[in-house]
Amino acid sequence: MPENAIISNLNPFQLTDALKKKIAFVPCNSKESLHSWIQIFLELDIPDNLVDDDSTCSPMDAIWNIYRRCKDNDLIGYNRTLSYASRAGGKTISSAVLEVLMLCHLDRDVAHLAAIEAQAQKAQSYVRMFLGKPYLKDFIIGDNKREIRYIRYCHQETGDNITDKQWHDLKSDAERSLYKKIDNYIHVLVATMSSVNHDHTLLLVLDESELIESNKVYEDAKMIPESRGDRLPITLITSSRKFAGGRVQKEIDEAVDIKGRVKLHINHWNVLDVSRPCPPERHKPELGKIPIYYSKELLKTISEEEYKELPPKMQEKYLMQEGFHGCLHNCNNKLFPACQGRLATKEVKPSEFLKPIEQLEGLLDALPEEHIQAQLYCWRPSRTGMIYSHLERQIHMISAKEMASMILGEEVTFDIPKDKLFELFKLNHARIVGGMDFGFVHPFAVIIGAVFENTLYVFEAIEASGLELTQKIELCDMRIKHYNAMIYPDPAYPSDIKTFRMHGYQMSSWKKKPGSVLNGIENVRLKINPGAGKRPEIYFLLGDAGCENAFKRLQEYRWKIDAISGEPTDTPNEENNDIPDAGRYLIMNVFGKGSKANVLEEEENVIVNPNDKQYTVANWQKQIINELTDGEEIIEEEEEEHPINSTIKWFI
């Protein structure tokens, strides 16, 4: 029987000291053997259950997936992996187990990069605790705060291992030559620029990556993993998915490129996968099953009678699932929307690591619903910490014909190109305005919109990196100059503003005042969500590439996260803040306190298009029809159209 098979085929209590010493450093060939090795040598029972149907792996699966690939050097196309899981789901301790295995079995150095000092100390304490177990502890060298050095000498024929001291105590060089030195280390570091330039290793662990504040540090850390000979490196990212627009969500969104190539392999599990099974005395199977109504959105469970009493609109938020009598009457009503009886019906392998349901219920009572949905059930990222948390795609992104309908006060049923939408704005005396953030290290950003009846319709946006001033002007000449917008630029660049003016742009003069950032953000929030019962006062053009990107940037715009508390601060994060800044300059000047969204008064002869086409309110329809038909007579449809729809039809 192979030595690595001994572990999974014998009771740990039947293994002799001599046998344990022999197999302690023998790599395992199956997940079952590895699970037993961890139990025997690290005295830890890693959970190996999949309870939630949406989870992709258990904590044990996550360890085995990386361990096996590193052992077999099967890492082509698998050089980056993400394990995101619930809070207290065993992410850090699982990564510590994996790091120990790198030293004991796989001859791989490790860099463990933690967001803050406290996390670094916690990770190091786990590793030292495991390496301090019997049969493993004698091979630690020194007591460096940041480095755990692990040296052993393996006999090339017998596989026996001796310590550094024992090797030096051998009587002759001939005896020493029979042993192979295996010298590895784990560097436990805090995420700073100096630490990411510290070393190169075969495994990089980015611990709680969501809390690594500096994007520069995070990006530079990608260069830490480096091959050694033929052996390929790997990066493991661990975190709970805390915030929309946060680093974990960004990694998930970019895991597959536009060609379908997997750039990041994702493992995730939630709190159900690390919970104990539901005992029969709790879910009461003897009482049979009943209809149970649950809402993931509201995180609530109700009876059929309660469901029938709800108004139809509220009933739409609920789904029905048969469950045990105890699921409704003996359980926290926030648990069934996730569990749906799975903890009662799915096979759960016992483990001391698993949390009792009573502990889970305590968390459900203590945490806000959004935290539960994001950090326990892993359904979606939390909007907590997002600056514009009320910005919703289904509400604030609308098509050109929907914008036209709002301007005209009547439904428009025809698609409208952007250039004709712009002419419609001008025809109806909308004010064309813009915001501009010049960028130096960051991208150049512009937002252009039309103000009509105190509502801003954003129909153009630019974000471009690495441009010189002349290139910015050339880009604007192509994209926005014909709008002749009044632009509110970042006043910190007066020479750039002057140059834009010289090239024919209307650049407003204004000054930033103390507190203008937070005041400006509040102005934007009021446009997004003016208050209960009121419709939004800002919309973005659906399907337009620039507007889609601008909307995404605004949705992801967030407060800096305090790395120690994990809570949002009152300082905006500077990552991808250029579009949000440009939009803020626009809105705080046009709609802020003391400003006016000056919509032009209606006149009989208002020039809409400055390029020699004198369209007026009175004659524009006739002129457009003549242009599009070369003066030919138009035969009307039998079905009568509303005059506005007819007008728009010919307009486009």
Q: What is the CATH architecture term of the largest domain?
A: 3-Layer(aba) Sandwich
Shape: flat
Low-confidence stretches: 596-625, 627-644
Strand content: 15-25%
CATH class wording of the largest domain: Alpha Beta
Helix content: 25-40%
Structural class: alpha/beta
What is the CATH topology of the largest domain?
Rossmann fold
How would a textbook summarize the main sheet? 9 strands, mixed
Give the averaged pLDDT, no decimals: 87
Task: Summarize the topology.
Elements: H1 3-9, H2 17-23, H3 31-42, H4 59-72, E1 80-85, H5 91-104, E2 110-114, H6 117-131, E3 140-141, E4 147-155, E5 161-162, H7 164-168, H8 173-176, E6 179-190, H9 193-196, E7 203-207, H10 215-221, E8 234-239, H11 247-253, E9 265-269, H12 280-283, E10 289-295, E11 300-302, H13 304-308, H14 312-315, E12 319-324, H15 325-329, H16 336-339, H17 342-345, H18 357-366, H19 369-376, H20 393-396, E13 397-398, H21 400-408, H22 418-427, E14 431-437, E15 444-452, E16 455-464, H23 469-479, E17 486-489, H24 494-502, E18 506-507, H25 516-528, E19 538-541, H26 545-556, E20 559-561, E21 568-572, H27 578-590, H28 620-629, H29 643-651
Parallel strand pairs: 1-8, 1-9, 2-6, 2-7, 7-8, 13-19, 14-17, 16-19, 17-18
Antiparallel strand pairs: 3-4, 4-5, 4-6, 10-11, 10-12, 14-15, 15-16, 20-21
Helix pairs in contact: 1-3, 4-5, 5-6, 21-22, 25-27
